[in-house]
Amino acid sequence: VTVKGTQADGTPILDKVLVNAVDGSVVARLPTIHTAKNRELHDLKNKTTLPGTTVRTEGQAATSDAVVNNNYDRLGTTYDAYKELFNRDSLDGSGGKLISSVHYSTKYNNAYWNGTQMVYGDGDGSTFSNLANSLDVTAHELTHGVTSNTSNLEYSGESGGLNEAMSDIFGNVVEYYGAGKVVSDNTWKVGEDVYTPNTAGDALRYMNDPAKDGDSLDYYPDYTSGVDVHYSSGIANLAFYLLSQGGKHPRSKTTVSVTAIGIEKAAQIFYRANTQIFTASTTFAQAKQWTGQAAQDLGYTQAEISAVADAWSAVGVT
Ligand SMILES: CCCCC[C@H](S)C(=O)N[C@@H](Cc1ccccc1)C(=O)N[C@@H](C)C(=O)O
Ligand SMILES: [Zn+2]
Q1: Strands, E, within the chain: which ranges?
Q2: pLDDT tens for residues 11-50?
Q3: 230 catalytically annotated
Q4: Residue 136 in contact with ligand 1 by CB distance below 6 A
Q5: Beta partners for 56?
Q6: Under 8 Å CB-to-CB from 253, ≥6 apart: which residues?
């Protein structure tokens, strides 16, 4: 292996060649695999015309704006998590650009994916502090990019709830990775680091008890097509939590007892399902079937495969 050069962020570009041990002749040249984070940050300066002024690209030094620097770092952690856990090189699996625009509009209490890039509001300081500073918000939005490059789950109806759930799930899987692969209460809270800065301990959503936010669903029979995708996501969020940690429905909507398989195996199952099996119109029933299929494809034990089905049964997906 020889170093053929360096990427913008300093990582080496490796030249892999197969050499004849006798005479040292090059027998074959292996493909050079580029893995760079490929970040591109823009400052919207509280306007709304995307993408805004380019303020920091991959490998460039920190700027004077802490929000830009924080989001740049969160994108880096998210890239690293996807590479290390799932061997995925960016949104599209081949080093696609991570385009992010911060300081969107004024006091904007949201962040979103517009089909090609991430956009972050500053929050109003009461409902949200700056959303661009948050790892689980950043990973939530970047995961919409992964989903749009893979299953492309339609952002409405049951597939819309699944789309939002993928973003909450991998948002927190990345947060778990960023915390040093340690599970804590925060692993199951969504947006806790930027939601209501004046109230400690609360969150925008709760994967381990979705109904705690007063709106989210935790039981599939309660689903109707009019439910906001941020609330129907609770059905899949709770299934993921129960598969990871084990236990029963937090509000006794069912009596199914789920055996824990751990967050990393649960993440591998949901990652493979979302990126290799789900289609744009996937329903909750198909999600149950295809996460089970993913567990089987991954060579997990019969008990682990059964735990997947149990997790969905626990939230009323029969
Ligand atoms: C313009 C409306 C866009 C809504 C869709 C984006 S992807 C979204 O889901 N945003 C997240 C932001 C987030 C993520 C994680 C933690 C906290 C906040 C979201 O959940 N938005 C809520 C406030 C909503 O739009 O109801
Ligand atoms: Zn979203």
Answers
A1: 2-6, 12-19, 26-30, 39-43, 53-57, 98-104, 111-113, 118-121, 189-190, 205-206
A2: 666 666 778 888 888 888 766 455 689 999 999 999 999 9
A3: yes
A4: yes
A5: 41
A6: 218, 219, 315, 316
CB 217 within 8 A of CB 210: yes
- Ligand 1 pocket check for 102: Cβ under 6 Å: no
Please name the residue that has the structure tokens 């909750």: 284
Asked if 165 and 317 touch (Cβ cutoff 8 Å), the reply is: no
111 C-beta closer than 6 A to ligand 1: yes
In the chain the first and final C-alpha atoms are separated, in Å, by 52
Pair of tokens at residue 175:
């947060």
Q: How many residues are recorded in the chain?
A: 318
Out of 40, 58, 141, 175, which one is annotated catalytic? 141
Place of tokens 């040093």: 180
Q: What is the pTM of this model?
A: 0.91
C-alpha 124/C-alpha 316 separation (Å) is 37
- Complex ipTM more than 0.90, yes or no: yes
Q: Which atom of ligand 1 is nearest to the CA of 191?
A: 16
Residue 191 has what DSSP assignment? S
pLDDT in tens, 109-137: 999 999 999 999 999 999 999 999 999 99
Specify the residue with its C-alpha closest to ligand 1, atom 23: 110
